[in-house]
Design a protein that fits this description.
Layout lengths: L2 H23 L2 H4 L1 H10 L3 H24 L6 H26 L9 H17 L8
Amino acid sequence: MDSRIRLAFLALIVAQAAHSIEEYVFRLFDVLAPARFISGLLSRDLARGFAIANIALVLFGVWCYAARVRHGRRSARSLAWFWALLELGNGIGHSAFALAGGGYFPGVATAPFLLGISVYLIARLSAAPVSPAPR
């Protein structure tokens, strides 16, 4: 896995962290039923539950980078594809909600970063040869 893929992956996780902060500040859990549901599973206080879910998501991304992608482990390519597609969908979803509502939707300000970085990462992953990786 080349350095551009590793850097793009890390940038995607940083963008997700910023995205999570935007969603929290503008209370996505109050306007999107799936966010409210997941938040409610983790805490009676929806803000706390949402924070827990997003911190766990970002920490998982950091772990994926630090333990797998950075070292080019066997699972690195699959994890990079997972995150690239997840964040592509995330960026598209927030943009679609904003367009459908005709205004701001929590998370739409950072959605272009998710979209741009995920598209770049997908392009790099698609162009990169598949090579054996260390365990």
